[in-house]
Amino acid sequence: PPPLPAPSAMLTSRGPALCTALRRAAPGGLAAFHSSARRCRGARVAVVLSGCGVYDGTEIHEASAVLVHLSRGGAEVQMYAPDVPQMHVIDHSKGQPAEAESRNVLVESARIARGKIASLAKLTTADHDAVIFPGGFGAAKNLSTFAVDGKDCKVNREVERVLKDFHKAGKPIGLCCISPVLAAKVLSGAEVTVGHEEEEGGKWPYAGTAGAIKELGAKHCVKEVTISFPAHVDTKNKVVTTPAFMCETALHHIFDGIGAMVKNVLKLTGK
Question: How far, in Å, CA of 94 to CA of 101, rounded?
């Protein structure tokens, strides 16, 4: 089939009046038009992505849930990702590596961010009141080597810097799903949760992660994914975590649990 026209061409084909109206509404171009409407200033929150897709990047439903709850909480959001190659590319229809492909974490993350994203190297504590890391295997493959090395993993240099800088500044850090391993590795003595510590017949298929967290020197706290007990708040370190897709459960439970994490992160900012 013939290639699709460029976005600007598609707009123009709808008529000059529509094109002009959209350009006036979004003087920065289409990326600006796709961004959230401006509102009264709330907490400024950085969201760190690790690609696009559960098996080799950011879990998209988790990222969406984080962004929805931040929007509802009145936060100003800027998304970031490291400008590095992915560990590998997974064909999500088969659950197998696509051997001939290579992708960039920042470029893939831009799909979720609708183009409005910056290199993680530009993220500073001075510009933000909190930082949140959605889950997905990208946290264990692209932000760290946890998927391969377990307790002996290394964390991406920029990710480590961000975690240490926010911790030192006393600014809250939110993590969900597998991403709490990043805090467990970098922040000595942190308390986190990835849910339960036993598989329980497949309900908690990644329960072994809790053991690795303990080996990293962090404290693991057993938590449910449901709205009743959905997040753990380490008040000393200002680290907030929730299990999300570490549990096999209904999507709305995961959405609500992430909402509790976001709510506690925003509460810790004091804004």
Answer: 15
Class of 44-269 in CATH: alpha beta
Q: Would you kindly state where each structural domain of the chain is located, as residue ranges?
A: 44-269
What integer pLDDT is reported at residue 40 of this predicted model? Answer: 53
Nearest to 181 by CA among 233, 157, 131, 216: 216
Residues 49-100 have pLDDT tens digits of 999 999 999 999 999 999 999 999 999 999 999 999 999 999 999 999 998 8
pTM of this prediction? 0.85
Catalytic one of 176, 177, 221, 247: 177
> Closest by alpha carbon to 132, among 72, 183, 56?
183
Is 177 labeled as catalytic in the residue annotation? yes
